[in-house]
Design a protein that fits this description.
Organism: Kushneria phosphatilytica
Protein name: Abasic site processing protein
Strand content: 25-35%
Number of domains: 1
Largest sheet: 7 strands, mixed
Pfam families: SRAP
Shape: globular
CATH architecture: Alpha-Beta Complex
Keywords: Covalent protein-DNA linkage, DNA damage, DNA-binding, Hydrolase, Lyase, Protease
Structural class: mainly beta
GO biological process, one term: protein-DNA covalent cross-linking repair
Radius of gyration: 17 Å
């Protein structure tokens, strides 16, 4: 699952050179669901960075705590709000890392999953819009998760789908056939990710110090050949 994100300061145009940004990029060393983050979507053919609420909130949702922050790739067709968003409203969430927790005898050990060089990467997501009145709209999203790859399986069984820079525009374009978009929702290659243990301070989303993402042990890597 994806229950917490690490979003550090980085240049998003290094991932998407044609990206248009407005205002400050939302960062957080320990970003929990039901908070705002910065997402990327295609608007009139232009890549735009926009703030969105992490947790899909269609107009009929009555309890905010029920806003889903993840959507399983295998069941996107089972819920109307996921099905419609996948067809027409796909977006991306650039991050520095994703926190996962490994079950241990007496506690859960948090790990930060990132790239071997700790460069930012992009997560697949879908979004919806809710109008509170005729002129005021709120946008929200859910990350799309897939089965974890072999490297991550000892730690977690689910992980967000990664979208590469070369796939980004096709993923965002609603004209891209859904069959093609579905093919992008696959576990990341083993060598694309690394992870290291971090302090259990990350367990509390109120903790927002940079030490949340500091390694407390070595980076673990795995080559595809292993």
């Amino acid at each position: 699952m994806a229950g917490r994100l690490h979003i550090d300061q980085f240049d998003p145009t290094a991932l998407l050179p044609q990206l248009k940004t407005h205002g400050n990029w939302i960062t957080s060393p320990n970003l929990a669901p039901r908070r705002h983050l910065t997402a990327v979507r295609l608007e009139h053919g232009t890549l735009q960075a926009v703030p969105m609420f992490w947790g899909m909130t269609p107009g009929w949702l009555e309890v905010l705590d029920h806003a889903p922050h993840n959507a399983r790739a295998e069941s996107l067709d089972e819920r109307r709000m996921f099905r419609e968003a996948f067809a027409a409203r796909r977006c991306l969430v650039p991050v520095s890392g994703v926190y996962v927790w490994k079950e241990q005898p007496r506690m859960k050990q948090p790990f930060l999953v990132t790239t071997p060089r700790r460069t930012p990467f992009m997560l697949a997501a879908i979004w919806c819009r809710y109008f509170s009145d005729a002129t005021t709209a709120f946008d929200s999203l859910a990350l799309i998760t897939v089965a974890a790859n072999a490297f991550l399986t000892p730690v977690t069984d689910r992980f967000p789908a990664l979208i590469g820079t070369h796939e980004a525009r096709d993923w965002l374009d609603p004209q891209t056939p859904q069959a093609q978009a579905r093919q992008m929702l696959a576990p990341a290659p083993n060598e694309q990710l690394g992870l290291f243990p971090v302090s259990r301070r990350v367990n509390n989303p109120a903790n927002q110090g940079r030490e949340c993402a500091w390694p407390t042990g070595p980076m673990h890597l795995r080559n595809e050949a292993q």
